Structure formats: C-alpha cells, structure tokens
C-alpha cells in the first residue's frame, strides 16, 4: 500500500515537473521570438553612405510618425544625412513602446571593423535595422543575440543573408526580398531598346555580383536572346580613390564599346550621380549607345537614358515599419513576411534619347511615369 | 321600311363590333409589341451607352495594358489612381472607374467607390443595380476596367421613347379605327352584305400594316439614336487624345517632336469602325469633332472624323425586320384564334348559352392561351440546362447530365399521364385541368429561381407532372365525345390550337428572353398560365362529364402482342426521339452559333406552324394515296435525311431546311404512326387508354433524346445529333428484318 502511494506521488511529481519545464521553456521561447510587452530598442547599421539608404530611413521615420511613435517634425530627407535622420528619430520618440538608440548607429564602410563589430550582439538594442548587402552579410555571420532586419540588399538569398523567401540561415535574420526587380528593369529596357548585346561593369566579388543583378541579367539573356559583355572594375574605396575609379570605368566603357555593345546597364556602384553624365559622354553616348539605370530615378535625372524602379523607398519604408510593428505586437520573428515587391515606375531622360536619336513612340511616352530633361 | 331600318341597325352594330374587335386585338398586340419595343430600346440604348463609354476610355485602358507589358504588375500599378481620375474626367456620365481582376475582385477604384462587382459582368455587356450601370472592358487576360455609369441618361431616353411610342400607337390606332370603318363600309357598298370572314381578313391586313408602320418607326429611332452615339464616341475620343497630348507636352516635349502618333491613333480606334480618322492640325477641320490644345502659345486642334457604320445599321434593320415579322406572325395567329372563337360565338348565338356540352371553340381558345404560356420557355430550356451544367465546373461530370432537367421533365410527364389517367375519372376533368395548370405554374416559378442543375431538374419534374394533367385532359376531352366525327373535330381543334399556341409561345418567349432574362420568362409563363385559367368558363368543361379511366390491363394487352411491342420500340420511340431535334438540338445549335433567342424561337415556330396548318390537307391526301406502312417508311426517311444533312453540313441554312422538312414530315407522320397502331384493332382497347399510351410512349422517346444528344455535346451539336439517325436507321432495319422473319415463319406454318 505504502509503495503504491509513493509510486503515485512520484509519478505525479514527475509529470508536474515536466509540465512546469515545458511551460517555462515555452515562455522563454516565446519571449525570444516575439516581442510583446517590453520596450523595443532599435539600432541602425548601414553598409555605406548611400542616397537609397538615406531615403529609406527617412520613409521609415515618416511611417513611425504616422504610427504615433515619433513626433511630427520635418524629416527633411533632401538635406540630411542618414545619421542626422537617425538622431532626429532618437530625439523625437514619444512612444513608451519603442526606443531608437542613439549610440547604435554604424556605417560599415566608413568605420573599421573594431568599431562596427560593436554593432553585433549589442546589449543596448533588441532589433537592428540594417541597410545594404555587406552589412547584412556581416550580421548574418556574426549576430547571435539580437534580431536584425536587412533592407535594400540587392539579393539577400544569393548573398546568404537568408536561405530563401521563407527559410533562414540565421534565426535572427529577416531580409526584405523582391526577386523580380532586376528582371523588370531588363525586360522593360529590352522592350524599349531591343538590344542584342548589353554591357555591364561591376566589381569582381560575390557581393557585387549579387547587388549588380548579374544572375538575373544572365537568366534574361537566355529568355530574350541577347549577349552580355562584362568588365570588372574595383569600386572607389574612399574619397581619394575616385579618380582611379572613374579612369578605370572610362577604360571599361571604351572596351565595351569596342566589343560592340548596343546598350549599357549602369549597375549599382559608387558612381556619384553628378559625375554620371560626364562618364557616359566620353565613349558611350557618342557611339549612340543608350543606358539603363539600375539603382534609382536620380540616375535617369542625371543622364542615364532609362530606368525602372528597383526599390520604391515609400513602399518599402511602409513595409519595414509594418513588419517591425507586427513583431512588436507579438508575431513570432520567423513568421514575418519577407517578400514585398516594389511597384515599378518607368523613367526616361528625353534629352538623352533625342541626343541618341532614339524615337520614343507616343504610346510609350504615355506610360512613362516621369520624363526627365537635362537643364529642365 | 322597318325591315330596312332593322338591316341598317344590324349593319351599324356589326360595324361597331368589327371596330371593337380590331381595336381590341390591335390594343393587345400593339401593347405587347410596344412593350417589346421599349424593352428593345432600353437594351439598345444601354448597350450603345455602355459601348460608347467603354470606347471613350480606350486610350487609358490601352495605357494600362501597355504598361503591364513593360513589367508593371496590375496588382501594384504605380500611377493607377491618376489614370483612373483621367478616365473619370472623360465624361460626366462616368460616376466611378475601377480595375478588377479575373475573379471580379476590385483592385482599384476612383470616383464613386466600386466596392464589389457582380460575377455576371464577366459574361454580360453590362449589369444594372441601384448604384448605376456597370460595364467592363478587358485590359488583359487578368484584369478589366470597370465603369459605373449614370442611369439617368438611359432612363431619360427611355421615358422620351415611351412618350413617342404611346403617341405613335395612338395615332396608328386612330388610323386603324378610321380605316376599319372605311373598309367595312367600302366592302358593304361593294358586296351589299357583309360577313365575319371577310371582315376577319381585312382586320388582319390592317393589323399587319400597323405592325409594319411601328417597325419603320423603330428602325428610324434606332438610326437616330445610333447617329447620336457616334457623335458621343467622337467627342470622347477627341477628349482622350487631348488629355494624352497635354500630359506629354506638360513635361516639356513639343508637339513637333512627338513621333508614333499614327500608331497611337490606330490602337485607339481599331475597335471603333465609326471613326474614320484622327488628325492634329493648326486649324479646325469641317464637321469633325474638335478640341483645342494650347501649349507654349501654340494652338493645335484634335480633329476626329466619324461616320455612321452602314453595316451596323443594316444589321439592326435585319434584326428589327425579323422582330417585326415575328410580331406579324403572332398578330395573325392571335387574330385567327380570337376571331375563330368570336365567329363561332356569333354563329351559334343564343344556342351556345343553353348548351351543356363542352364548347369546342372555347376549348381551342383556352388551350391556345395555356399553350402560349407553357410554350414561352421551349426555345431555351436546353440552353438553360447547358449553362447550369457548365456552372458545375466539374470536369468529371458526365455530359449526359446536360439533358437531365429535360429528361426528368419528360419522365414526370410519363408518370403523370398514368397517374392523371386514373385520377381524372375520380376528380373530374375541370379539377384535373386546374390542378395541371397549377402544378405547371409552380414548376415554372421554381425554374425561375433555380440556380443549380439539381433544383432546375426538380422544378422541371413538377412542371412535367402538371403538363401531364393538361395533355391527358386534352385527350379525354376528345374521347369524351359520342361520335367519331365529334372526336375527330375536338382532337383536331385542340391539336391545332395547342400547336399554334406553342408557336406563339416559343417566339414570344424568345423575344422576351432577348430583352430580359430566362428567369423573367419562366416567371411570366407561370403568371400567364394562371391568368389563362380565367378563360376556363368558356370551355364549358364540367367535372360531371363521364370519362373512362386509364387501364393498366389494357396497356399490358398491347405489350403482349409482339408486332405491337416491336412497332412501339423500334419505330414509334425512335421517331419520338427524333422529335426532340427541334426542341433540343436546334436551340443548342442556335446558342452554339450565337443566334439570338428570337431567331431560334422563330425557327421552332416555323416548324410548329407548318405542321399545324399542313396536317389536315397533307394527312388527308397522303393517306388516300399510300398505305400506312409506306407512309411510315417515307416519314422515317424524311426524318433521317433531314437530320443527317444537318449533321453533315452543320450550318444555319441546312438547319432551316431540316426544320421545314421535319415539319412537312410531321404533318402526316404523326397521324400515320397512331393510325398504324390502331389498325391492329386490339380488342377491348378504348380510345382513351390508346391516346394516353401514345402520350406515354412518345414521352419515353422524348425523355431519352436529351440524354443521348447530351452525351456527345462536347463535339458540337451537329455531331451529337448524329445519334438520332443512327437510332432510327437501326430501329427501322431491325424492325424490317424481324417483321420479315415473322412473316416468313407464318407463311411456312400456313404452307405446312
């Protein structure tokens, strides 16, 4: 009898212990993957100073304003750097649920590794907004403690930031994915220009291969039956390296012209927008070769022939804040939707098309979202 | 003197009666044709209005479509709001603009919010509700542009048209009244005395003339309306071009620098044959629709030249002519039937009121009206069944299901004939007829609301059961007569009355279905059949009329005789299967080649009328010249040839020839196959049971047909209908072989 009582007691105790453990573990799991009650501390890291990142950060700020997290102040994207915008966000946070950490601002290009290594596994934040591929790759390899969300990375899957649209290599990683952006540009460009051989210049490394969309270009070349001519140039490493960079670029363009390209794909690079026209006027435009801008609208404004939006910062800013809010409200981090396509916009530089003798039919002009003219 | 005065008074009374009759028939027919004309006009106006509106936003739609080809997905289309606002500004009639996907889900909306769109819009030119008129045009295979249009344009035009129609009708009525009296007195002065038959012909001719006048008015109204719409379309196109040019020029591009304008104009107007050309000039051009553009102190004019498309007018004239011809046919048939009734009443005079027997002319008129009601849906039952089958969206569903509602209806008639055959002698003829009409009406109401094949089949079952009571009653009316002459008279009168009623019903149903919907026609059929019951007293049918009941014993007797059994299964049933070619295959064929319901119904009407009016003369002549056996062979060969020709050539012309040949064949064949069986002189078999057996057997044949034809419908109607001649040839050959075998056996036995 006593033995039986003892066995029952032991059994009950074991079961209770198990249930408690599961409960505790479950709670722990829940608290590590979703953020519901405490303040969400947010930091910011960018791969380099880049107008796209600045614009996207400004849109994130705007959307936080709409949520009532930030005070209504003038973000002034046009005149402020990313750091200034970030500082404004830190100083204007009026929400008890969010905090933007002033000390958690890093730029992986302008800082050395000793400095930006503090960005990962940082105790002062819970979530990091990461801009660009190289910073994203760094976080994917090194961040083990905090969640991080990568935006404006050219190809997060190819660069290894995430495994796929739904799978992660690092459970703390989130990356905005828009798989078709390069394809859209190339297809639109091909419809308009009907090129047979396209030239492209990019730095010869994995990151540049990814953010230059070379994979999509090769896939499109099979589909649309055109050839690709590639040249490699090392990107400008710092301010003093720009002369070398532009000289190499001009040489690369000349070689491409000699190889018989009929269109140039101006991929994401360290080209300063106000220098773009001058570069193209050397050999490309005199040989009546039109250009397709990969990065953004500004390149078309400054002299590229045509462009199709790769990233709409308005939309992606809204998307970014929506995902952060979902996480804050309790959605498990792994369940956040990563895919969000930007609404394409088409731009042309009419002055350049006139210069090149490209006749844009009226029906096509009607569908272009913005027509730029130099000196207008 | 007194006699002279009496004669004069009589003539005046007769003239007034004639006038009253003509005016009454004119009012009934003209009211009906005016309602149809107003419905047509409303439909036409709405179609022209929606077409013009869709065309006016062609440029914007092309813009969206072209953009999607540049990689802009319709679900995330930058700048769509601006484009939709541009569409709104094209015309004040456009209240709202939206974009929907292939499932009618609203993706974008501007102006008056379009929150949801009915799925019906995918298959119809427009859909109307309290908000306005919705119309759509495709952008690409995944999306369409939807416009919400202001209803008031159509309502105002229709109200104006109604006013005009009423005025025209009253004028024509006055003219008809005056002419009627004129004709009366001219005929009186020429002939000295006048009788009803002469008046009948003159009255009918006057009514035909009135329909022609109204038809001319309809054509003229259409032409005016269409011309006005062309002008509207031109203005819309002109505004679109102006808007597009201003948009581009506002971005710093000069007019002289713009290239590809011709290609742009071509895509704009490729679907608008009414637009001759568009040009941009520095000056206004003649009569063209012109809008002005001012840019950088330069003035340009967008000139749009348009013309009325003669082909469109011609097609409409043909359509109106067909409608007018159909209405004239209905006028004539209606006039004949009503005048027959009135003529008989005048002839019999006071005697009729004392009669206790059934009134043949009243019965004919009654069943004529009832059959109009029950015939309204004949032209599209198979089409409704086919559409409901398609809505199943089940690739595994057997095609034989297409014929299910029709087969079920006929099965119900078969069962009903046996049930009512027994019941009539118990409940009485009057109750049976009233119950029959009631059941049919319930079935029709349910048909109106049926949205699934199952429910539609149930409704057709109820309808078929009611129809059985009516059919059984008609046979019993004839068989209740005492002499063979009376039986023949009643049988003939009822048959012709019902055939003529069915002819009118099928075309009226077609005319209405073209302008409204199938559901509306089902409902109307129910209402008209119930109203028709008000005429029942003129039949003088009472429950006290003595009738013999349906006898199962006697039915068994027939099927114990091998020759009768073989005849029924190998000859009669295949012929009854072939009878469904007209009611089943022809509507499906018409639907396949996009014929209007009016034309489909007109073809069926042509078959019924030809049979109705050729039956008496052709059956008399043929039965004098040939034996029943030879006539049956000729009958079968005519059916097999006409249907085979249709199956081989599969075109409208051959279909029409088949319809006519079948009508001629039926005019003697339907009598012959009954007489051939009656020739067997089966002892103890009374005519009531005999008549009901024939309904029973013919319905079995008709019931099998839709299933047989439906099985092959995926290959087209012509291919599916091949089964009919196969069955007939098979049945005939087997019958001949077996008959010869039995004949030889009998001969051998006799010899031995």
Percent helix of chain A, as a range, is: 40-55%
Number of helices of chain B: 23
Mean pLDDT of chain B: 83
Largest sheet of chain A: 7 strands, mixed
Annotated CATH topology of the domain at 355-751 in chain B: Growth Hormone, Chain: A
Largest sheet geometry of chain B: 5 strands, antiparallel
- The CATH class of the domain at 355-751 in chain B: Mainly Alpha
Mean pLDDT of chain A: 86
Q: How many domain modules of chain A?
A: 2
Strand arrangement in the largest pleated sheet of chain B: 2-1-5-4-3
Computed over alpha carbons, the radius of gyration of chain B is 31 Å
Helical segment tally of chain A? 14
Widest sheet, order of strands of chain A: 7-6-8-9-10-11-12
* Shape call of chain A: globular
Gross CATH architecture of the domain at 355-751 in chain B: Up-down Bundle
CATH superfamily of the domain at 355-751 in chain B: MFS general substrate transporter like domains
Using DSSP, what is the number of strands of chain A? 12
In short:
Chain A has helices spanning 2-33, 51-67, 82-91, 113-116, 133-142, 181-193, 206-211, 214-224, 242-258, 273-280, 297-301, 313-328, 350-356, 362-367; strands spanning 40-46, 98-107, 127-131, 147-151, 173-175, 197-202, 227-232, 263-266, 291-293, 306-308, 346-349, 370-372. Chain A is α/β, with parallel strands linked by helices and 376 residues long.
Question: How would you describe the overall organization of this protein?
Answer:
The complex is a heterodimer of chains A (376) and B (752). By secondary structure, chain A is α/β, with parallel strands linked by helices. Chain A has two domains: 40-178 and 312-335, Rossmann fold (3-Layer(aba) Sandwich), CATH 3.40.50.2300; 181-310 and 345-372, Rossmann fold, CATH 3.40.50. Chain A contains 14 helices and twelve strands. In chain A, the strands form two sheets. Chain A has a seven-stranded mixed sheet, with helices on both faces. A five-stranded parallel sheet of chain A has the order 2-1-3-4-5, with helices on both faces. Chain A starts with a helix and ends with a strand. Helix content of chain B is 72%, strand content 8%. In chain B, the strands form two sheets. In chain B, strands 2-1-5-4-3 form a five-stranded antiparallel sheet. Chain B has 23 helices and eight strands. Chain B is an alpha+beta fold. Chain B has a domain at 355-751: MFS general substrate transporter like domains (Growth Hormone, Chain: A, Up-down Bundle), CATH 1.20.1250. Chain A binds chain B through residues 183-185, 187-188, 191-192, 308-309, 312, 341-346, 350, 354, 359-367, 369-371, 373, 376, and chain B through 59, 62-63, 66-67, 69-73, 76-79, 244, 247-248, 251-253, 257-261, 263-264, 267.
């Amino acid at each position: 009898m006593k033995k039986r009582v003892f066995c029952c007691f032991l059994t009950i105790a074991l079961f209770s212990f198990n249930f408690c453990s599961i409960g505790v573990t479950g709670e722990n799991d829940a608290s590590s993957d979703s953020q519901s009650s405490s303040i969400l501390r947010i930091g910011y890291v960018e791969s380099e100073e880049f107008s796209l990142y600045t614009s996207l950060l400004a849109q994130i700020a705007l959307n936080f304003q709409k949520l009532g997290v930030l005070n209504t102040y003038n973000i002034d994207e046009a005149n402020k750097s990313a750091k200034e915008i970030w500082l404004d966000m830190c100083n204007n946070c009026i929400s008890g649920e969010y905090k933007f950490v002033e000390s958690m601002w890093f730029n992986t290009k302008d800082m050395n590794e000793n400095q930006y290594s503090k960005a990962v596994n940082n105790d002062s934040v819970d979530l990091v907004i990461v801009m660009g591929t190289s910073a994203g790759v760094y976080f994917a390899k090194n961040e083990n403690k905090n969640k991080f969300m990568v935006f404006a990375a050219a190809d997060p899957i190819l660069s290894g930031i995430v495994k796929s649209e739904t799978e992660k290599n690092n459970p703390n990683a989130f990356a905005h994915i828009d798989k078709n952006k390069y394809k859209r540009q190339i297809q639109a460009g091909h419809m308009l220009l009907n090129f047979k051989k396209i030239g492209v210049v990019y730095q010869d490394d994995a990151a540049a291969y990814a953010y230059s969309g070379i994979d999509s270009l090769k896939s499109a070349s099979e589909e649309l039956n055109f050839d690709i001519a590639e040249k490699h140039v090392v990107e400008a490493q710092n301010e003093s390296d720009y002369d070398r960079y532009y000289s190499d670029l001009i040489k690369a363009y000349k070689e491409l012209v000699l190889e018989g390209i009929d269109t140039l794909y101006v991929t994401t690079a360290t080209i300063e927008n106000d220098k773009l026209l001058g570069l193209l006027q050397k050999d490309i435009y005199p040989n009546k070769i039109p250009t397709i801008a990969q990065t953004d609208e500004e390149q078309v404004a400054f002299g590229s022939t045509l462009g199709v939006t790769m990233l709409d910062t308005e939309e992606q800013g809204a998307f970014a804040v929506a995902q952060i809010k979902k996480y804050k409200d309790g959605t498990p981090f792994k369940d956040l939707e990563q895919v969000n396509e930007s609404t394409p916009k088409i731009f042309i530089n009419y002055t350049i098309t006139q210069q090149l003798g490209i006749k844009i039919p009226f029906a096509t002009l009607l569908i272009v979202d913005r027509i730029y003219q130099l000196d207008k | 003197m007194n006699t002279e005065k009496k004669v004069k008074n009589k003539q005046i009374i007769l003239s007034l009666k004639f006038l009253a009759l003509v005016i009454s028939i004119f009012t009934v027919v003209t009211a009906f044709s005016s309602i149809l004309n107003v419905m047509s006009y409303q439909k036409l106006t709405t179609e022209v209005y929606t077409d013009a509106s869709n065309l006016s936003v062609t440029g914007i739609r092309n813009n969206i479509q072209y953009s999607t080809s540049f990689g802009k997905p319709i679900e995330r289309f930058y700048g769509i709001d601006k484009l939709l606002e541009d569409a709104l500004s094209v015309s004040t009639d456009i209240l709202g603009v939206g974009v929907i996907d292939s499932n009618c889900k609203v993706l974008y909306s501007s102006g008056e919010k379009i929150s949801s769109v009915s799925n019906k819009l995918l298959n119809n030119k427009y859909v109307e509700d309290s908000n306005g008129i919705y119309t759509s045009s495709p952008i690409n295979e995944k999306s369409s542009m939807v416009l919400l249009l202001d209803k008031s344009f159509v309502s105002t035009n229709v109200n104006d048209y109604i006013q005009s129609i009423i005025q025209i009708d009253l004028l024509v009525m006055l003219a008809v009244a005056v002419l009627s009296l004129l004709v009366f007195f001219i005929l009186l002065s020429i002939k000295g005395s006048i009788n009803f038959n002469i008046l009948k012909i003159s009255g009918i001719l006057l009514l035909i003339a009135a329909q022609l006048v109204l038809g001319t008015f309809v054509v003229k109204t259409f032409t005016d309306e269409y011309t006005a719409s062309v002008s509207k379309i031109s203005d819309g196109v002109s505004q679109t071009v102006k808007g597009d040019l201003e948009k581009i020029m506002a971005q710093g591009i000069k007019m002289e620098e713009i290239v590809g304008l011709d290609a742009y104009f071509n895509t704009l107007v490729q679907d608008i044959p009414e637009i001759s050309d568009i040009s941009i000039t520095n000056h206004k051009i003649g009569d063209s629709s012109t809008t002005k553009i001012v840019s950088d102190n330069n003035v340009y004019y967008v000139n749009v030249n348009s013309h009325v498309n003669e082909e469109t007018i011609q097609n409409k004239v043909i359509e109106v002519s067909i409608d007018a011809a159909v209405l004239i046919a209905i006028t004539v048939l209606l006039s004949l039937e009503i005048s027959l009734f009135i003529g008989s009443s005048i002839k019999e005079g006071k005697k009729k009121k004392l009669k206790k027997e059934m009134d043949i002319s009243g019965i004919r008129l009654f069943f004529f009206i009832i059959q109009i009601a029950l015939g309204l849906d004949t032209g599209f039952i198979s089409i409704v069944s086919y559409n409901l089958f398609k809505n199943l969206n089940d690739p595994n569903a057997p095609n034989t299901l297409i014929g299910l509602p029709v087969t079920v209806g006929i099965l119900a008639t078969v069962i009903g004939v046996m049930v009512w055959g027994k019941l009539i002698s118990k409940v009485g003829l009057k109750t049976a007829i009233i119950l029959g009409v009631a059941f049919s009406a319930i079935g029709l109401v349910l048909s109106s609301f049926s949205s699934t094949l199952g429910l539609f089949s149930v409704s057709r079952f109820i309808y078929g059961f009611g129809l059985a009571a009516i059919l059984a009653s008609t046979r019993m009316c004839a068989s209740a007569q005492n002499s063979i002459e009376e039986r023949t008279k009643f049988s003939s009168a009822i048959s012709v009355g019902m055939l003529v009623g069915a002819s009118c019903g099928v075309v009226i149903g077609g005319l209405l279905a073209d302008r409204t919907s199938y559901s509306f026609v089902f409902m109307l059929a129910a209402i008209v059949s119930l109203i028709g019951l008000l005429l029942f007293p003129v039949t003088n049918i009472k429950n006290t009329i003595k009738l013999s009941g349906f006898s199962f014993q006697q039915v068994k007797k027939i099927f114990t005789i091998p020759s009768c059994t073989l005849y029924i299964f190998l000859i009669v049933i295949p012929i009854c299967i072939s009878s469904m070619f007209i009611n089943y295959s022809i509507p499906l064929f018409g639907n396949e080649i996009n014929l209007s319901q009016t034309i489909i119904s007109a073809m069926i009407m042509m078959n019924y009328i030809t049979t109705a009016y050729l039956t008496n003369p052709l059956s008399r002549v043929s039965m004098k010249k040939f034996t029943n056996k030879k006539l049956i062979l000729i009958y079968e060969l005519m059916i097999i040839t006409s249907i085979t020709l249709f199956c081989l050539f599969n075109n409208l012309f051959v279909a029409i020839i088949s319809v006519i040949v079948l009508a001629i064949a039926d005019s003697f064949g339907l009598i012959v196959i009954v007489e051939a069986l009656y020739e067997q002189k089966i002892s103890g078999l009374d005519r009531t049971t005999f008549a009901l057996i024939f309904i029973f057997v013919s319905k079995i044949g008709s019931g099998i047909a839709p299933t047989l034809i439906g099985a092959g419908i995926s290959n087209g109607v012509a291919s599916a209908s091949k089964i009919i001649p196969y069955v007939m040839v098979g049945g005939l050959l087997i019958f001949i072989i077996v008959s010869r075998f039995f004949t030889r056996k009998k001969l051998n036995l006799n010899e031995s």
